[in-house]
């Protein structure tokens, strides 16, 4: 891929993620955040809320497991134990008034954060799609968090042939952000570089007792980093897959700016080695040893006289190309072969 094309693709991928995080142009009506015990979605949610505040977007926080109202939230609604119809009516009461100009400009005026889609899936297994469809409007986007390592309690009336709530959420979502810990991804990359088995943490360790995560201290520049695997589904039906790194602002500097975004390949640990170039700029085959020639080896190669070199000269009389062979002392001359 030419450098210009590569840089254009990288800039385009970063632009798509920034549009998604900034909630611009209605990039994703329903965004699904997949987190786990090793990497909670809290840094990404904080980044989304900070960007929404800068864009003067109203923030509604629908709580199933959060006890306190987040600092950036404008409205805090507790949904635990409530009827979904009542929750839906309360949500709609905080929505902005209908404005045709906003719909035409595709500007998001309100964003609803759902802190636990697992609890919602357990409470409304069979009406999950209906509930989400009823609270999404052209000017309201939904950001929901699904914990992949927390089971969903299905009711006894659940039909085994019905889609699982997680499969349904993956089908409805227009953007899926899978989160993982940066330091753990670095450790996995080190294992891949050594061609050994990749380490696992948390529930995937298959250990009984206390869950032990990553205990090694990361570098200061990697502290708190989140790897985001983005799957953005465009209106054309084409999906865009790319991996990014989000470095959230520290608590002391959160008022001064936003988090830093970059592609995974821009990190020093994940950069691909540049292909070795030959004398004519051609790529050399990958090998564990050097295939190039030194100056002395090149001169020695040019001075080698090939076997039967004299047969390559034109000696006239139609005898060019004949093979000149001198018998050695150990050769056995056969008259019959000579006649043939």
Automatic annotation (TrEMBL):
Pathway it works in: tRNA modification; 5-methoxycarbonylmethyl-2-thiouridine-tRNA biosynthesis
Matches recorded under InterPro entries: Elp5 (IPR019519), P-loop_NTPase (IPR027417)
Pfam families membership: Elong_Iki1
Entry annotated with the keyword Nucleus: yes
Annotated segments matching region Disordered: 273-296
Keyword Acetylation: no
Biased composition (Acidic residues): 276-285
Gene Ontology BP terms: tRNA wobble uridine modification
GO CC term, one of those recorded: elongator holoenzyme complex
UniProt GO molecular function: tRNA binding
Keywords: Cytoplasm, Nucleus, tRNA processing
Subcellular localization(s) per the UniProt record: Cytoplasm; Nucleus
Primary location group: cytoplasm
The family this protein is said to belong to: Belongs to the ELP5 family.
Protein name: Elongator complex protein 5
Organism, as annotated: Hypocrea atroviridis (strain ATCC 20476 / IMI 206040) (Trichoderma atroviride)
Taxonomy of the source species: Eukaryota, Fungi, Dikarya, Ascomycota, Pezizomycotina
């Amino acid at each position: 891929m030419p450098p210009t094309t590569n840089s254009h693709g990288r800039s385009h991928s970063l632009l798509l993620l920034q549009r998604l995080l900034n909630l611009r142009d209605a990039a994703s009506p329903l965004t699904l955040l997949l987190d786990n015990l090793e990497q909670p979605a809290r840094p990404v949610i904080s980044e989304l809320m900070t960007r929404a505040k800068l864009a003067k977007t109203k923030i509604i926080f629908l709580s199933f497991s959060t006890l306190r109202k987040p600092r950036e939230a404008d409205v805090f609604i507790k949904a635990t134990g409530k009827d979904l119809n009542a929750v839906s009516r309360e949500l709609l009461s905080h929505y902005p008034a209908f404005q045709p100009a906003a719909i035409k400009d595709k500007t998001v005026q309100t964003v609803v954060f759902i802190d636990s889609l697992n609890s919602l899936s357990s409470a409304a297994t069979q009406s999950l799609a209906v509930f989400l469809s009823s609270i999404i409007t052209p000017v309201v986007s939904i950001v929901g968090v699904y914990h992949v390592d927390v089971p969903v309690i299905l009711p006894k009336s659940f039909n085994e042939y019905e889609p699982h709530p997680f499969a349904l959420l993956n089908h409805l979502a227009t953007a899926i952000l899978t989160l993982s810990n940066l330091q753990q991804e670095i450790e996995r990359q080190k294992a891949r570089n050594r061609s050994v088995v990749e380490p696992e943490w948390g529930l995937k360790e298959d250990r009984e007792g206390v869950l032990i995560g990553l205990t090694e201290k990361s570098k200061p520049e990697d502290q708190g980093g989140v790897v985001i695997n983005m799957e953005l589904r465009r209106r054309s039906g084409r999906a865009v897959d790319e991996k990014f790194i989000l470095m959230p602002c520290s608590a002391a500097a959160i008022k001064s700016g936003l988090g830093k975004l970059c592609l995974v390949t821009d990190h020093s640990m994940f950069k691909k080695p540049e292909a070795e170039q030959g004398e004519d700029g051609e790529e050399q085959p990958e090998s564990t040893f050097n295939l190039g020639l030194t100056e002395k080896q090149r001169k020695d190669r040019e001075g080698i006289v090939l076997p039967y070199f004299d047969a390559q000269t034109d000696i006239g009389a139609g005898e060019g190309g004949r093979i000149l062979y001198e018998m050695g002392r150990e050769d056995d001359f056969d008259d019959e072969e000579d006649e043939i």
